[in-house]
Amino acid sequence: MSQNIWKKDDRILDLVAKHYNVEQRAANTYFHLATLAKSIGYDYAAKFFYKMGIDKQEAHMTRLINYLMKFDYVLKSDSIIVSESVDFNDIASIFKFAVDTESKVRNSVYKVVDAAFAGKDFETFEAMQWFVRDSIEDLEEINDLATYASANNANMLDVENMILNKLKDKE
Fold first, then answer.
1. How far apart are CA 163 and CA 141, in angstroms?
2. pLDDT of the residue at 89
3. CA-closest candidate to residue 103, choices 65, 66, 146, 61
4. Is 71 left (phi over 0), alpha (psi -120 to 50) or beta?
5. Of 22-31, 51-60, 112-121, 154-163, which range is least confident?
6. DSSP calls for 40-98
């Protein structure tokens, strides 16, 4: 074990670890929603949710693990990491559930940021700013798609085209 020069409040690091678990649940949820979207014929929505799940794993969870390892913190993973199993038969309900999921991620980010700032743990506060910015972007994007998918005049082709455009914008 390396000598750690940083004095960290375990309660704040525990919140970071809890946030890791929230991100892991979100990734699993997005993979589940991808399969639901695909099963009802929304191929681009399935691809969108799959990419969201991969992003949670590769960008979010990796950043959190690397941060925790700087402080020799041993991650305590939740025993419940599988997403809530839902069975929607329309794309609007799937996107609404995704908005709820991303709102939970955002609330978790804010808990860490708030505790870090209050505890004058400015390293953690600064490290979490990436998550603040990303949660704004993710929630806005999912909410836009949910709003569009819920519109009375939205049809499958229009929804899929909008999602395809979002996917192209991300490339």
1. 10
2. 83
3. 146
4. alpha
5. 154-163
6. TT-HHHHHHHHHHHHHIIIIIIHHHHHHHHHTTPPP---S--SPPP---SSHHHHHHHH
Task: Say if CB 14 and CB 71 are below 8 A apart.
Answer: no
Residue 6 per-residue DSSP state? -
Let me know: does 156 contact 48? Beta carbons within 8 Å.
no
In the numeric block, the tokens 């049809």 are attached to 155
Answer for the pair 118, 15: CB distance below 8 angstroms, yes or no.
Answer: no
Q: What percentage of the chain exceeds 70 in pLDDT?
A: 92
Enter the pTM of the model.
Answer: 0.91
Residue 86 phi/psi, 5° resolution? -125, 155
User: 6-10, 12-16, 33-37: which range is least confident on average?
Assistant: 6-10
